[in-house]
Amino acid sequence: MLMTRSLCEAGHYFCAQAGPLRGMNHLDVTMTVKAYLEEDADTSLWGLTPRGRLQKMLSAMDGVELGDTEAAVAAGSDVLLLRADYVYDPRVLSGLLQARNVVLRDPEDKGVIAVRTRLEGDRAAPPRLAEMPLQTLEAVTPDSVASGLQSDLRKFDAPWVARADAHNSRQLENALYRAAYKGVTDLVTKWVWPIPARAVTRLCAYAGIRPNHVTSLSYVLTLLAGMLFWQGQYGLGLICAWLMTFLDTVDGKLARVTLNSSQFGNLFDHLLDLIHPPFWYLAWGIGLAADVPEGVYWLIFIGYIGGRLCEGAFKTAAPFSLFIWRPFDSINRLITARRNPNLILLTLAWLLGAPYAGLLLVMLWTLISTLVLAWRVVQARRASRRGELSPWLSHVDPVAERHRLTVRWFAFADGKRV
């Protein structure tokens, strides 16, 4: 069912990714489209009713205003009529806004869900779906108005819409959560955290805990982990570190499913992610009983900063993440020397009673990973001279190519991933 296909709940993320509309007239982006909602669903999804969710998504999109439910509407007005008892992929909304004279029907019962058109005559009351001249409108589907590729979340997910009611609310909540999850990430975030993080995200959403509250707790745990590493209390430090990485998964998902993303929240979260890892390794080394050569720290910091610079340098060759250029890069992201894979090395070394070896492993893996990234950047620069680069996920058919392991890992045609 399409209701289980993934949705990412931050509409402004995907306005640029809705993809070209096939065979349709495009909207002049300078126009304002008035959105009118009708019908309601007696259910709540991540603390929002379908109507409230839809209003919040539309308010975040450029060139859209919610129409007055009582005012007259002039001829020539661009309008988008939507049933508010449905959940919409933001990419579908964005695609509808870019179209003109189209009708979207429920993929299952073929009932009219949405109409995007320009009114021909003055109206004394807001337009209704039942009044639209459907025979003059082009029928569209979710995947004909929106692209499945989501560059920001590094994945392919089929766009979708689904009717909401009290019977499928949990199913839709799970679909919204799946949609908020990155497709290409490290192996812990991808395969260990999804299910427990979903439970904690749900708890936070209904308890009124906001994403920045979770991020603030992550800051506290980050400092505690560093202090404990510094004192050589590696067991307690690792507990704090792993809890921090878990909450780092929760805060972003909570922001997306509750539509509480903000520029400050993104910066607040990303600054922590960017800065703290090498300082954990420094604290780990200081906590060792043995003297650690200063060069070890220098190589860790150089390798870490070099890796991040390589990721940025790739953007000079292509406007998307290095990790979705080719299947190799997506697989490499699972294990490259970011925080979680390095924490695995440190944890295993501590369990084996060899914390010093853990630090050396982090140094070696960081240097190797950075060299691999630098090699990929060089290859990308060379390839860009021969033509425009594109992410491998934009060329796959997730159904027909389901036999490929990389497609099963990183491209989700039905959303059944968590």
Task: Report what the structure shows.
By secondary structure, this protein is of the alpha/beta class. The protein folds into two domains: 2-150, Alpha-Beta Complex (Spore Coat Polysaccharide Biosynthesis Protein SpsA, Chain A); 201-387, Four Helix Bundle (Hemerythrin (Met), subunit A) (Up-down Bundle). Helices cover 49% and strands 10% of the residues. The protein has helices at 11-14, 50-59, 90-98, 142-145, 169-179, 187-191, 194-207, 211-230, 234-257, 263-286, 294-314, 327-335, 339-351, 355-386, 405-410; strands at residues 33-38, 64-66, 78-83, 86-88, 102-105, 112-118, 138-140, 149-150, 155-157, 161-163, 411-412. The strands form three sheets. The protein has a six-stranded mixed sheet with strand order 2-1-3-6-5-7. A three-stranded mixed sheet has the order 8-9-11. Helix 2 links the parallel strand 1 and strand 2. The longest helix is centred in the C-terminal third of the chain and has 32 residues, at 355-386. The protein is elongated. The protein starts with 10 loop residues before the first helix and ends in a 6-residue tail after the last strand. It comes from Halomonas ventosae. One of its GO terms (biological process) is phospholipid biosynthetic process. It holds the Pfam family CDP-OH_P_transf. The chain crosses the membrane at residues 348-375. Belongs to the CDP-alcohol phosphatidyltransferase class-I family.
